[in-house]
Amino acid sequence: MKKESDQDFFRQNRYEEPSQQLHGIWEQEFLEAGGQVPYPMTNDYLFRAVLQTNNKALRGLICAVLHLEEADVFLAEITNPIALGDAVKNKEFRLDINVVLNNNTLINIEMQIANRLNWRERSVIYLCRSFDQLNHGQEYTEAKPVIHIGFLDYSLIKECPEFCASYQLINTKSFLKYSDSLTLYVIDLSKIELATEKDRQYHLYEWAKLFKAATWEEVRMIASKDEYLKEASQTMFRMSADDMIRKRCHDREEYYQDLRKYERVIEESEKKREQDLRKYERVIEESEKKREQDRIEHEQVIAQKDRAYQEALAENEMLRAELERLKNT
């Protein structure tokens, strides 16, 4: 009966940090869990639910990406919280997380598994919107630096794959940094094996593995690496046990399935266009070859006729010369 009352209490306060007693119950259930996770943290709703619910996990993730120490972060406040579990009418609503870090830096964090072929433009627009923060009368120097962190499950630049790439404004000749005000991070979850020693040192490698983990056994193994990963893993388990959160995650999966169908149609269309283009190029190439062969054959015919004509002229000259000789004898 006691456990049942605890569950009732959790249902009423499911998106708040549990009491110490409930935390112990959830921790024990987490340690005993096995099999497939209902939804991985690449599901952007679960990603948002975990980081919005557990601030320690949020701070740990930010430290991992920005290569910060725990003491460097004293505040990470989400400024655009959503009502977790509530029905969402528009499946395209934004699940990116806006964070004020230490009262002096704005961070936008987003999980994106579908390649809509617009990430570069989208991330730059989000970054610039966040930077355009000054009110009338404020000095430009009061603008807070802005960081955009994108977790993608595909390679943005296939020719140069990289696990964690960072971008800033630089001089294109000297490569001197123009400003620290705008920074973009792109973490490629499909290229975790390319993580650098620094990425592993700050456990960004483990965070990426956690996002992709498919079983609770994997999640527990990753959770043992540090306290922030443990917090995120246990909160992931707690969110996954909630019916409403699972429903919202399911809605997002359906949305991304529709997107993937759209992507396949685009991909097939692109393949057909490439095939048609190659076919057209082959037709042009064969036409060029035939025209070149016809030109060569035509020139050969002309050359043969020219030789025959020259030979006829020479023979005619010889006959004239012979005729003149006979007249003069």
> Which word captures the global form?
elongated
Percent range of helical residues: 40-55%
State the end-to-end CA separation: 146 Å
Largest sheet: 6 strands, mixed
The counted number of beta strands is 6
SSE order, as H and E? HHHHEEEHEEEHHHHH
Tell me, rounded to a whole number, the average pLDDT.
Answer: 88
Strand order of the largest sheet: 1-2-3-4-6-5
Structural class: alpha/beta
Q: What is the CA-based Rg, rounded?
A: 34 Å
Percentage of residues in DSSP E strands = 5-15%
Unreliable sequence segments: 1-13
Number of helices: 10
Folded structure, characterized:
The model is unreliable at 1-13 (pLDDT under 50). The chain has ten helices and six strands; from the N terminus they run ααααβββαβββααααα. The protein is of the alpha/beta class and 329 residues long. It has helices at residues 2-12, 20-32, 44-53, 55-66, 119-131, 197-201, 204-212, 216-223, 227-240, 243-327; strands at 76-78, 97-101, 105-112, 146-152, 164-170, 177-188. A hairpin with a 6-residue loop joins β5 and β6 (177-188). The longest helix is centred in the last third of the chain and has 85 residues, at 243-327. It has a six-stranded mixed beta sheet, with helices on both faces. 55% of the residues lie in helices and 13% in strands. It has a domain at 15-241. It is elongated, with a radius of gyration of 34 Å.
